[in-house]
Amino acid sequence: MEKFRLISKFMIVAILMAAFTITGCKKDDDPEEIPVSKTALQAKITEAQTLHDAAEEGTAQGQYQFGAKAVFQGSIDLAKAVSDNAEATQTMVDNAVIAIEQAITAFDGKKVVPIAPDALVGHWTFDDG
Question: Do residues 95 and 109 lie in contact, with contact meaning Cβ atoms separated by under 8 Å?
Answer without folding.
Answer: no
